[in-house]
Amino acid sequence: MTADRRQVVPEARNGAIREAIERAIEYIWERYSEPVSLDELSKSALLSRFHFARTFREITGVTPGRFLSAVRIHQAKRLLTTTSRTITEISFAVGYQSLGSFTNYFTQSVGMPPSRFRHLVRGTALNPTLPRDEVQASHGTAAVTISFPTGCPALRVYMGIFPSPILQSPPVAAKIIDAAGAHPLRCVLSGVPHGTWFVHAVGATRTTHPDRRTDPMLFVDRLDSVTIGARSPLRVSMRLRPSRPTDPPILFALPVLRSLPPPVRPQTGSDGIGSDTGSVGRPLKNSRHP
């Protein structure tokens, strides 16, 4: 069974519309610590309130409010990593009025509380591990074929199945693949509970991205509303691309992607697709993550 639930962006071809949404996103990054209303965002995009809300979701996959919340948590992660400010100070600095609300949402999104995240990035806590495959009658399998853009460098790719279009909260299944970037690779994610999910792929290089919000340079893709059922495996295809301003920030504390081993040419089958055998599912210890 094959499915392709790639994010559909009806108006993405309209350069003026995309630029309008990017202006609103820039406004969010500049004002995330303030109470930002939908009216303010639509005005920054020079669009009507209704048209803005609809188009924003079509292009980013999430509502303006969810994008704003993601930016706040992303910036909280940055402050926890780069400053010695207290968690209370950081919660107010990113726009929260309640420490409890901030801590709860941070924990749900990142997969750990702020204090543990700070210890993790300082090397005083264990790296998060990948979920284990569980074989149960109510679980299925997704077989994902990943392709790469022309000239793509060697990547370490994190593949995960998540409950949200934003890469947040712990995944129900995940693996890590080292890819040379030349050949498509096939990744099998097992133990996925039956239901509708979002498949996320994030590949990182050693190259620093010119955008201040993404380091190292990221290649991403997402499949929306993929249904895993009794008919397994579900076969889907993804093609990584450089991250864009319209991609919501990555919130979940991913295992390290920065430390890349020397690229290895994958063994290819008769279909020209490499296997993930021997390169997948390794928890990465004593290392940092994006």
Polypeptide structure, described:
The chain has 290 residues and is of the alpha+beta class. It has two domains: 15-121, Homeodomain-like (Arc Repressor Mutant, subunit A, Orthogonal Bundle); 139-275, Immunoglobulin-like (Sandwich), CATH 2.60.40.1120. Helices cover 29% and strands 22% of the residues. Strands 3-2-5-6-8 form a five-stranded antiparallel β-sheet, with no helix packed on it. It has a four-stranded mixed β-sheet with strand order 7-1-4-9, with no helix packed on it. The longest helix is centred in the first third of the chain and has 19 residues, at 64-82. GO terms for molecular function: DNA-binding transcription factor activity; sequence-specific DNA binding. InterPro entries: AraC_XylS_family_regulators, Homeodomain-like_sf, HTH_AraC, HTH_AraC-typ_CS. Residues 266-281 have a biased composition (Low complexity).
How many beta strands in the DSSP annotation?
A: 9
Just name the CATH architecture of the largest domain: Sandwich
Strand percentage, roughly? 15-25%
Q: What would you call the shape? A: globular
Give the helices and strands as they follow along the chain: HHHHHHHEEEEEEEEE
Could you give the distance between the termini? Answer: 34 Å
Structural class: alpha+beta
Instruction: Tell me about the largest β-sheet.
Output: 5 strands, antiparallel
Overall number of domains: 2
Percent in helix: 25-40%
Poorly predicted runs: 8-13, 208-212, 259-268, 277-289
CATH superfamily of the largest domain: Carboxypeptidase-like, regulatory domain
CATH topological fold name of the largest domain: Immunoglobulin-like
Count of helices?
A: 7
Q: Strand sequence of the main sheet, in spatial order?
A: 3-2-5-6-8
What gyration radius follows from the Cα positions, in whole Å?
A: 19 Å
Tell me the name of the CATH class of the largest domain.
Mainly Beta
Mean pLDDT: 81
